[in-house]
Structure formats: structure tokens, C-alpha cells
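Q: Got one fold?
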Amino acid sequence: MAKILVAEDEEVLRMLVVDTLEDEGHELHEAADGREAVVSIMEHDYDLILLDYMMPLFTGLEVIEKVRNTPEKKDVKIMMVSAKSQQADKERVLKSGADYFIAKPYSPMELVQRIEEILNEEN
């Protein structure tokens, strides 16, 4: 299955996402803030990064900028999750370099379905 980074500062939400995706057979890594996310991304090769918009140390947008400016990491798939779900926010996220956007709150099954669609695009 896929190797996925879950970068989310809300511990309960991060644990829920990790547990849900592990149940689907994926290998999960976790980051509790933007700096941890960047370090993990630079150390590992991920099939998908699930990235919260509003995190301490680096926002999701700042993480995307760092990833997209690193040649060997620039093509990794990134899904931004955010409670900021107005159309302008979504456009800003996609323009920043995210490949996908999902608005909070979302159901675990909706997340699983979206991730499976993304991963199947590559096959």
C-alpha cells in the first residue's frame, strides 16, 4: 500500500486519521507541526502528504512552498485539509501547489475514498 504522511497539529484528529488509514493497510508517518512535516518529507519518500492548513511553526502553505522548491520532492502528491473552506481559500491552496483539497469536517470514509482515488490515479 501507500506511504503517507499525516501532518496535523490536533492530536485527536491526527490519531483518528492515522488509525483509519492504517486499517486500510497504508504505512503512516505523523507530524504535529509544519517543521516536523518538512523534516519528515525531506527524510522520506511519500506517495501522499495529508497536510493541515493551519499548523504551528510552518503553515500548510509554507510546507508546500518548501516541498515544491525542493527538486527531488516537488512531484509528491499533496492533499490539503482545512476548516478554511471558502472558494477563495480553496483556490489559494491549489494555487500554492497542493494537488487536492478537502474541507473539514469530513468523514473518515470520505477521506479514505478520496485517498484511494488519488492513489489509483498514479496506477
